[in-house]
Amino acid sequence: MADTDTADRLPPAVRAEALESLLTERGLVKSEVLDGFINRFVNDVGPMNGAKVVAKAWTDPDYHQHLLADGTGAIKELGFAGPQGEHIVVVENSDDVHNVVVCTLCSCYPWPVLGLPPEWYKDPAYRSRMVREPRTLLSEMGLDLDDDVEVRVWDSSAENRYLVLPQRPEGTDDLSEEELAALVTRDAMVGVARVGVS
Amino acid sequence: MDGIHDMGGMQGWGTVAIDPDEPVFREPWHGRAFAMGAMSMGLSGTNLDAFRHGLERLHPYDYLADGYYGRWLACAETLLVDSGVLAPGAVEARARNLMGESVDEPADVEENKPTYERGGAGSLREIDDEPDFSPGDRVRAKDMRTGGHTRMPGYIRGRTGTVHALRPAALLPDTNAHFQGENPQHVYTVEFDSTELWGPDAEAAMLRIDLFESYLEAT
Q1: What is the pTM of this model?
Q2: For residue B18, what is the nearest residue in chain A, using CA coordinates?
Q3: Quick one: average pLDDT of A93-97?
Q4: B86 contacts in chain A (CB < 8 Å)
Q5: In what order do the strands lie in the sheet containing B216-218?
Q6: Which residues of B67-87 are buried (b: 16+ CB within 10 A; e: fewer)?
Q7: Residue A41, helix vs strand vs coil
Q8: Model ipTM?
Q9: Which fold has domain B138-218?
Q10: Do A13 and B15 touch (CB under 8 A)?
Q11: How many CB atoms neighbour CB A58 within 10 A?
Q12: Domains of chain A
């Protein structure tokens, strides 16, 4: 039985410190190793990786085809692989179909291309409602879809991870791949936003 | 198991706000909890499925009270205590001492890591069995009930859908989480119409979800 008296609960920051001290004094972890792990997800693994994948798919038809046929392989070609990316499936938005990704059972997320999930993705409200009332929830999150657009909700309940390939915005024909990548947001690659021209 | 983690379709959680300026780790301890949570699987001799089941086994209050990284931290403690790497109560006693109390810390206990066969790294496996189902087949999600780990959410049970795709075979979380063997199986993405899941007044949508072969039966 959990202690539900909040006055009695130990602050999680102290519990974390306690666990780290117990593990380090037993020689089971090194604090520098934890630092390295954290730094990797703060600096190197994040939505900027997925944005490069999307921008390349928008500008290179062969890569676009490869990405949809073999997401994991095409993503690895750009150097992105690792935990929570064993099998990545890329699903493409169009005028007729809108894809959005959720994990109702935990918060599975394609780490190699998007990094760690944001708070809203882990929110019980997102996990519970996206499978049941996706149009209402998307609208509350700022994305209104026409009634004739098919909504596909992907619940990542096994080891496949899903990345949404958003639609390339109008008026971007003159932009370079790098400039396009700068427009692509995490939220668009999960499917709760469109890519806009800022 | 039917726990707090199985959130698909629950009601009453309110709306979702996006913070565009959210850092990767909002608090320094979030990062520590993340890193130790990830390492706890190896340190306890367990696996990713056991970790997910560790999250599910938390009391619902503990699951929610300190958010995502709070449950990672609590789950790391659970796995390390289950495997005898740390004694029950060791983290709490150390935390109290760090806060200026003076409490006895429990003596170390004997290690009790699970022993079981692993078929390699990661979760994907090559298997020789022919898949039971093909894209286009109508299938029903079995009305499975278990107190253990499963990746079949409650909202799918007993519902009928259509196989959309065959995915790479993967080890079965239901047994792997309990160190009862990997039992790799075919995995299918199955599509359900929202009205099949939520009734005739459901919002128009198609739900696609990845299900293990033993979760499914032909209709």
Answers
A1: 0.97
A2: A120
A3: 98
A4: 22
A5: A97-102, A150-155, B206-212, B185-193, B160-170, B138-141, B216-218
A6: bbbbbbbbbbbbbbbbbbbbb
A7: helix
A8: 0.97
A9: SH3 type barrels. (2.30.30)
A10: no
A11: 23
A12: 9-43 (no CATH), 46-190 (3.90.330.10)
